[in-house]
Amino acid sequence: MAGAAGGGGGGCVTLRGSQFQDLLDAKHNVLFDCDGVIWNGETAVTGAPEVVSLLKQRGKRVFFVTNNCTRPRESYVQKFSRLGFTDVAEEEIFSSAYCSAAYLRDVARVQGKVYVIGCSGVVRELQDAGVHVVEDVGGDEPGTNISNCPLDPDVKAVLVGYDENFTFMKLAKACCYLRNSECLFLATDPDPWHPLRGGRITPGSGSLTAALETASSRKATVIGKPGRFMFECIASQFDLDPARSLMVGDRLETDILFGSNCGLSTMLTLTGVSTMEEAQKYKDSESPEHKGCVPDYVVESIADFLEALEE
Amino acid sequence: MAGAAGGGGGGCVTLRGSQFQDLLDAKHNVLFDCDGVIWNGETAVTGAPEVVSLLKQRGKRVFFVTNNCTRPRESYVQKFSRLGFTDVAEEEIFSSAYCSAAYLRDVARVQGKVYVIGCSGVVRELQDAGVHVVEDVGGDEPGTNISNCPLDPDVKAVLVGYDENFTFMKLAKACCYLRNSECLFLATDPDPWHPLRGGRITPGSGSLTAALETASSRKATVIGKPGRFMFECIASQFDLDPARSLMVGDRLETDILFGSNCGLSTMLTLTGVSTMEEAQKYKDSESPEHKGCVPDYVVESIADFLEALEE
User: β-strand B39-40 against B43-44: which pairing, if any?
Assistant: First the structure.
């Protein structure tokens, strides 16, 4: 099966029996997105803990690549453990918060402070990386407004992530910092929204970033998927060969495009946001930029790995 | 002078002496933007009150067309009076808040409530137009979050305007309302930011709208300039002939493009945001969509009207 060895050629192939086996033989590294792939909220996808364990027992390297920036890696380890994943190590978890911190420290080599719009996961990862954070907890003095609020002259970068405490004042301050063209402008991830239980959705980092991009007339450097940086971050630590790596995700425009952008084989799982119909639409599209959103393979759930792994 | 009679052909012409006189003879209606044109903050542009009075004495009809949605018309009348404009009537003032209310009532004929992200100016205009408003003053019960907050089933439209009390929660609620594809999505104006005294800027309605557009995967119907609706709103009440109308503004991408879109002659005044260099750049551009941002005429200040008017 040529597809499994190289990359599926963007075929939306539903894997069966020996094909799954061939794919597993061809790949040494499996990258999983988290939300919608291995868990939904506080519930593990059925069979997911076994899949992760069996892949490792077969000698595969497993990584978790998530645009979710709300938790530090340490808290992810706890969540994995709580949901029945017994053998996931902190080093295997690459969140957009962790990778943003790595980017600021190792690539941008920011000299000065970073003004953060984001939750504690982002702040914690930056602090762990030794990056100096200006965290805005909204405790402005009464009478403070955007005309008179103090701005820190040492701020050399603005980082935007998911922030349930986002306010107009934070947006306005960030906008003022970005008036200095030497101030870097980063976003943890481009996710426009996230599904909540009960059918509601919540705005994502991409939504808050769009507000700041419009107000500042600038474009953010986006760390998370589908950009290549998170793969580069993993590859720099683990010497990954893209041709021997498989990306498994639930969002076509994020996970699958990320895999395509990085030269990985890609697999859509239907336990999250995107549907088979949407994948087929991208496949049928003649627009070249849609090609990257077509997964090589499609599975109902990553539990479909089990049959091949238990043989 | 052919330019003055018809429209200046997008020439960035600096008017002198008799040319100004010709232009005034050719136009019966003068539309002024407010911020950066007739005042800056709480200071009238020198000579502006006299220009308005003299235009009226010459039999011209004068209108004020502003994307600023923070005040109801009544409060604009007070501001005009406070800054020395003695003869401006409420009927001559067309703000994006007033026009949004007119759109909701007369064009969309909204049946139900409107969820408003915006300041008191927007709320007041909607109420004056008899539109039922859900105003979010942020007084959610403790423990309320986006998963469990009450949503009003009668909301049939979301309107976004400038809102210094903008929060993540407001954004998330609006996003939930817009999940219903029959819920209208309106924005008062597209302004990305506004200058503040002291060199700072503040995010505009366009910035908040961009956040909601991204989170909801929808596009807002934008009421303010450069869209045509505000002109249609004036024209429907005053029977304006575009060919005999002049639009005077300080922002190329808003005021001048609005004038071009509506078939008016356009004049850039340099007392606000845009510069002569920016106008020249649009003039030199080969991109067709930049042509509408080239003003027919350029003046240092609307006080330049005085010489022609006092003759």
Answer: antiparallel
pLDDT confidence band for A2 (50 / 70 / 90): very low
Instruction: Please name the residue that has the structure tokens 């992200």.
Output: B117
Rounded to an integer, the average pLDDT of A201-215 is: 97
DSSP string of A240-275, one letter each residue? --GGGEEEEES-IIIIIHHHHHTT-EEEEETTSS--
- Whether A191 is a known active-site residue: answer no
pLDDT above 90 coverage of chain B, percent: 86
Rounded distance between C-alpha atoms, residue B141 and residue B101, angstroms: 30
Two tokens, residue B71:
């005040």
pLDDT at position B10: 61
- Inter-chain residue contact B214 with A206, CB threshold 8 Å: yes
DSSP string, chain A: -HHHHH---S--EEP-HHHHHHHHHH-SEEEE-SBTTTEETTEEPTTHHHHHHHHHHTT-EEEEEE---SS-HHHHHHHHHHTT--S--GGGEEEHHHHHHHIIIIIS---SEEEEES-HHHHHHHHHTT-EEEE--S-PPTT--TTT----TTEEEEEE---TT-BHHHHHHHHHHTTSTTSEEEES----EEE-GGG-EEE-HHHHHHHHHHHHT--PEE-STTSSHHHHHHHHHH---GGGEEEEES-IIIIIHHHHHTT-EEEEETTSS--HHHHHHHHH---GGGGGGS-SEEES-GGGHHHHHH-
pLDDT at A242: 97
Q: Is the dihedral angle over the CA atoms A72, A75, A77, A82 positive or is it negative?
A: negative
Does A269 have pLDDT greater than 80? yes
Mean per-residue pLDDT over chain A, rounded:
93
Environment class of A154 (CB within 10 Å of its CB; exposed 0-12, middle 13-18, buried 19+): exposed
**How confident is residue B139, by pLDDT bands cut at 50, 70 and 90?**
confident
| Cα–Cα nearest to B79, from B47, B39, B119 | B39
pLDDT at A11 > cutoff 90? no
Structure confidence at residue B135 as a pLDDT band (50, 70, 90): confident
The answer to whether A147 contacts B196, with C-beta atoms less than 8 Å apart, is yes
DSSP label at residue B167: B
| Site from A207, A213, A218, A252 to mutate, B interface, most B CB atoms within 10 angstroms | A207
- CB under 8 Å to A303, separation ≥6 — which residues? A45, A46, A47, A48, A51
Residue B124 is encoded by which pair of tokens? 């007041």
- Measured between beta carbons, which residues in chain A are less than 8 angstroms from residue B175? 193, 201-203, 207
Q: Is the peptide bond before A288 cis (omega within 30 degrees of 0)?
A: no
Give the pLDDT confidence of A45-86 residue by residue, as tens digits: 999 999 999 999 999 999 999 999 999 999 999 999 999 999
Phi-psi region of B181 (alpha: psi -120 to 50; beta: other; left: phi over 0): alpha
Q: What is the pLDDT of residue A236?
A: 93
Are A267 and A295 in contact, with CB atoms under 8 Å apart?
Answer: yes
Kindly determine whether residue B164 and residue A165, on different chains, have CB atoms separated by under 8 Å.
no
Nearest chain A residue (CA) to B167: A167
Does residue A6 have a pLDDT over 60?
no
Q: Is the pLDDT of residue B138 over 80?
A: no
A296 a catalytic residue: no
